[in-house]
Amino acid sequence: MITIHPTHRRLAELYLQYAAGTMQDIQAAELLHFLKLNAQLVQEVDGLKEAAYAAQCAGNMDLVQHFCQLIDEMEVALYETCCAKDIGAEVEGIDAFIQAFGEQCTEEWAQQLCSSVLAEISAISGAADAGLGAGA
Predict the structure, then answer these.
(1) How many other CB atoms sit within 10 Å of the CB of residue 64?
(2) ∠ CA 124-118-106 to the nearest 5 degrees?
């Protein structure tokens, strides 16, 4: 059986949204997160495979078996993660949180921007009023 890790599944979903032109900024940030998870997974698996190969080249079959066992355990854990959890619900929960956080930040940034613009307008109008009073 070929299993697809939830990270790879979500990467595929995000790519399809990108290809369709429906990806939002928040999903682009999520894409980077899942790319990072994918890179970590690849590094871990490749590291174990390289270690097993080095042990085989050195003629240490006990160490080869140890690294192969770690790879097997990782595959079992990945399979259990893929089949036992509904990653879609978790991702939707994360998406909802990120969306709410983004909206909150946008509101706060908008308020800060409005405050700074109003302060600049007040400063300009105050300087103009002072200039009118001096010239009168």
Answers:
(1) 18
(2) 145
Q: What is the pTM of this model?
A: 0.50
Cα–Cα distance for residue pair 64/70, rounded to 1 Å: 10
Q: What is the DSSP-derived secondary structure letter of residue 85?
A: S
Output the pLDDT for position 39.
85
Q: How far is CA 51 from the centre of its chain?
A: 29
CA proximity to 17, closest of 114, 25, 42, 130: 25
Residue showing tokens 């999520």: 30
Q: What is the mean pLDDT of residues 114-135?
A: 57
20 CB burial (10 A radius; 0-12, 13-18, 19+)? exposed
